[in-house]
Amino acid sequence: MRTLVVHESMFGNTHRVAEAIARGIAPFSSVKAVPVSQARDEDLSGYDLVIVGGPTHVHGMSRESTRHSAEETAGKPDSTVTLEPDAASEGIREWLSSLAPTHGKAVAFDTRVDAPAFLTGRASKGIGRKLRHLGFDLVAESESFLVDKESRLEDGEEIRAEQWGRSLAQQ
Known about the structure:
7 helices; Rossmann fold; alpha/beta; globular
């Protein structure tokens, strides 16, 4: 089995989650984790499972304006976050919109603030909808991994992501 994990990350949290998911899958499958800026080079038909994730911004997937806001936040003198190298590039929303209809198996994940989903929204909901629209079969419920109000991954979330990856591989 071959698995591709595509992620978008502003402050490194979704990147860390994607890498943890890949670690969980690795004992069971050939797996590659790539930032969305490198995903255009991937032939999705060569993968048995495509896992796509991004940060939740304003109740859904990021867009140019919310990525710009993340850049501004990281650039403030008192900022406690560091911007990922490719954070300003196109995100998951634009990448998914650029794909031709296809078929295969997929699953979505996101990172979001640790609060009820009805308050924060979930990027994975929109990611999953776009994946289905492209022709993918979603093989598992989407998953959210939580960050605190200072945009730091909550304790235990990397371990949980690795376990989730393992469970996906074993399905």
